[in-house]
UniProtKB/TrEMBL annotation:
The lineage of its organism: Bacteria, Pseudomonadati, Pseudomonadota, Alphaproteobacteria, Rhodobacterales. InterPro entries: ABC-3C_CTD6 (IPR046914). Residues 65-192 form the ABC-three component systems C-terminal domain. This is ABC-three component systems C-terminal domain-containing protein. Pfam families: CTD6 (PF20282). It comes from the Bacteria.
Amino acid sequence: MNEHISLDDKLKAFIEAWDFSRLSPISVDIMLTDVAAIPVLYHWFGADPGPAPVGMAPLDVQPTELPYIQGLLDAYGEREGAAFADHNAAGAHAVHGPHLRMQRERYFDADAFTRFYRDNTTPKDTDDLRNEILHGIYETHAAKHDDILSRVNAVMIQAGNTQPAGPLAKYARTPVKQGICHHFVNEGQLKWKL
C-alpha cells in the first residue's frame, strides 16, 4: 500500500467536522474479554481459546443430517432384516431409537466444536484434528465386520479411543471425536456400507 495521502483542505475539513465525542476509550481488560479478540490472541500470542460449548441436537432432524442418518437407517435395517421407513420409525425402535439419539448428540457436539474452533483458532487446527481422527479410525473402518451396524459401533469405539495430537486435542471430548465420523459420512469421506 504505502500510498501517501496529503492533508488537503477537503480531508482536513472532514476530520475537523467529525464528532469525536462519540468515541470513548476501551480498557485492555475489556478488549481481552471481547470474544472477537480470541482469534487474534490465539494467532499472535498462542492464547488458549478454552473449551468449545457442548452441541445440542434439536428435536427435529435437520436437512444437513440426512446423509449420515440414512447410513444409520441402512445399518439398522440390515440388522433387523427390514428397512426403516425414516428416522422417525428408527427413533421409535426400542434398541435403535436410543442409538440414533446418541449419534445425533455426537454429530451436533462435533458441529459445535468445529464451528467454535474454526472461528477462534485457524482452519488448519480443525483440519489437523479431523485428519488425526480419520487416521485413527481408518483400519477399524476398513476391517471386516458382521454387518454395517457392527462397523459403525466399532468405529465409534475406536474414534473415542483415538488420542489426537495438536492444540485442540485436549478439548476433543469423546462425543466430538465420534461425531466427526458422522461428518465424514456426510461429506462422503466415509461410507458405513462398503
